[in-house]
Amino acid sequence: MEIIAENLSKKFQRDWIFRNLNLRFQSPHSYTVVGPNGSGKSTLLQILAGVAAPTNGEVLFKQQQQTIAVEYIYRHLSIAAPYLELIEEFTLLELVKFHCKFKPLKNELSLEEFMDIMKLGRAKHKMIKHFSSGMKQRLKLGLAFYAGTEIILLDEPTSNLDNQGIDWYHQEIEKNTQDRLLILCSNQAYEYEFCDEVIDITSFK
Ligand SMILES: Nc1ncnc2c1ncn2[C@@H]1O[C@H](COP(=O)(O)OP(=O)(O)OP(=O)(O)O)[C@@H](O)[C@H]1O
């Protein structure tokens, strides 16, 4: 799987967030986009996910030389980000079942096994709105790691995680990303030091 950004530029009102960005992201590699607050990392990630449009340029998605149309790319990727909402009125079990209708769990994991991996087994019948922020973050990451998609996009992956949660994140990265395309947005070196390539978005101003 490959994501190719060609001459990508994004402007909000009169402000150019980035300009003429040319990048190639290939599996099975891992990439991190770094830059200070407000530099455009999340904006770029949303464009790479096909959920936001660039002002100029384009994003191409390729699988074994075949181009995948942007409207179908959601089938091939998982994304976990602070601005993506979970369905708060569902219990954990309801939410996982619902999610699996669209993106089945990889390796034929059972729902019970999956909830235990996220260390949320005891919260099976708890409503998501009663989850702590760290529990919600483990759930978002778990859904991204264990969907059988070729691409994983993570924005600020350890936000709200305690030290144990951060250790868990590193273990799950090790287990789940070796044969996939991983793109992270981060400002924290410990979140991305394992990545193959670090891209500084400020070089595209
Ligand atoms: N929908 C929008 N309308 C107008 N401006 C926006 C919009 N979304 C983002 N911006 C602006 O674009 C810039 C880049 O925002 P973005 O969230 O991509 O940065 P970031 O690097 O991810 O920041 P952070 O590290 O704080 O998460 C900011 O100045 C932000 O205010």
From TrEMBL:
<dbReference type="InterPro" id="IPR003439">
    <property type="entry name" value="ABC_transporter-like_ATP-bd"/>
</dbReference>
<dbReference type="GO" id="GO:0016887">
    <property type="term" value="F:ATP hydrolysis activity"/>
</dbReference>
<dbReference type="GO" id="GO:0005524">
    <property type="term" value="F:ATP binding"/>
</dbReference>
<dbReference type="InterPro" id="IPR003593">
    <property type="entry name" value="AAA+_ATPase"/>
</dbReference>
<keyword id="KW-0067">ATP-binding</keyword>
<keyword id="KW-0813">Transport</keyword>
<dbReference type="InterPro" id="IPR051782">
    <property type="entry name" value="ABC_Transporter_VariousFunc"/>
</dbReference>
<dbReference type="InterPro" id="IPR017871">
    <property type="entry name" value="ABC_transporter-like_CS"/>
</dbReference>
<protein>
    <submittedName>
        <fullName>ABC transporter, ATP-binding protein</fullName>
    </submittedName>
</protein>
<dbReference type="Pfam" id="PF00005">
    <property type="entry name" value="ABC_tran"/>
</dbReference>
<feature type="domain" description="ABC transporter">
    <location>
        <begin position="3"/>
        <end position="205"/>
    </location>
</feature>
<keyword id="KW-0547">Nucleotide-binding</keyword>
<dbReference type="InterPro" id="IPR027417">
    <property type="entry name" value="P-loop_NTPase"/>
</dbReference>
